[in-house]
Specification:
36% of the residues lie in helices and 23% in strands. The protein is of the alpha+beta class and 83 residues long. The radius of gyration is 12 Å and the shape is globular. The N and C termini lie far apart (26 Å).
């Protein structure tokens, strides 16, 4: 997204700072981007260290309300779509 190139894989990773660019450049802000990017072809979302905390909570709430379930893989927090 940031380089206007297709992702090498179908998994989306949201880490620190990226949400600010998404909010600034996407119609509908973060919610609009999440709606565009995450769907049936994105079965796994990795949620890294996002600040402020309320932005991370907003992403987490969006994922959970759209059929994703929180799981831990080592130190990673991932969300997988519930079939």
């Amino acid at each position: 997204m940031l380089l206007h190139r297709t992702n090498a894989n179908r998994h989306i990773v949201i880490n620190s700072g990226e949400h600010k660019i998404i909010e600034a450049l996407t119609l509908g802000g973060l919610d609009g981007w999440l709606s565009e990017q995450i769907g049936d072809d994105s079965p796994v979302v990795v949620l890294g260290e996002v600040s402020p905390r309320d932005t991370k909570a907003e992403i987490r709430k969006w994922l959970e309300s759209h059929g994703f379930e929180k799981k831990a893989v080592g130190s990673w927090v991932i969300y997988t779509q519930i079939p």
